[in-house]
Amino acid sequence: MSEGPNLGSLLAEHWYLARKLRSLEIHFAPERCKGLWQCYEVCPVGCWTPDYDVRCVVFHHGERCIACGACVLQCPERAIELR
Ligand code: SF4
Ligand code: SF4
Question: Cβ(33)–Cβ(77) under 8 Å?
């Protein structure tokens, strides 16, 4: 019978993924934004703020971003990328 992954290999995988995620950055194309606010609603750390006057979001507090990808998945206009 084969053994499952041990603690050492799980930790190694965790650190590999954590390093990879930390290197990702948000790239936002404001010209694509239609001001639908999904990114603002799903971001768990408050990186997005609606600007209701111009109907476009503002990306700020980039240092808070945990690269969860929620805003990328939720934006119907593909205005946000993580890379
Ligand atoms: S989800 Fe997309 S279209 Fe909606 S406010 Fe955010 S960036 Fe703009
Ligand atoms: S990737 Fe996650 S944490 Fe980063 S801005 Fe988008 S929703 Fe917020």
Answer: yes
